[in-house]
Amino acid sequence: MSKVAFVTGGAGGIGQAICKRLADAGHKVAACYIAPEKETALQWQEESKSQGYDYYLVEGDVSDFSSSQAMVQQIEKDIGPIEILVNCAGITRDTTFKKMSEDQWKGVIDINLNSVFNVTKQVIDGMLERQYGRIICISSLNGQKGQFGQSNYSASKSGMHGFAMSLAQEVASKGITVNSISPGYIGTKMVMAIPQKVLDGIVSQIPVGRLGTPDEIGAVVAFLASDDAGFITGSNIAINGGQHTQF
Description:
Strand content: 15-25%
CATH architecture: 3-Layer(aba) Sandwich
CATH superfamily: NAD(P)-binding Rossmann-like Domain
CATH topology: Rossmann fold
């Protein structure tokens, strides 16, 4: 059955693959963008239409509570109640903690973690009323194991796990699942722009011997969003090619 899915950061590399997989599953898909990225987002929307995908785009800032509220209200007014939420928006501002500024810390926490509260807060009441919902947080390998120069990013992504596990317990009896996914190194345009020597060093640390693909992340999101995943909640799915394993 077709549902409305909202993917924050949907115009990004992994976000685009998630949108495509959710659309392939028959859902109506909405994504958001910030004002400086409007041209790029609209270009992606047009290119997607030529491929048969009609995504709904809305402008807004997930790091701002009021803006998140306005975006969700607009989506639900135009295409229907949101039953699938994918918290995918994220940025990096890498540097050692010794050199890290307050703005570098707050900027990453606001976009990566506070956005999860800002957006989820707007949809949870409706999900509770309808007794159905799927909430999926896109975390990171480095939210599990940490990473040099990423104390801000790792803290934000680790926080997503705690959020998902806690909210899952609150809403499990109401037909709502909450899970996280931890991608490792994925072959997005950003990663592929890394100098080849550095990229080769990264791949050498991945047991399967390659980068992951955005579509592999999208496939897991689509599964967690499906009715087949109704017994999975409070879980994290690591997708890192064996680079980091946990019991």
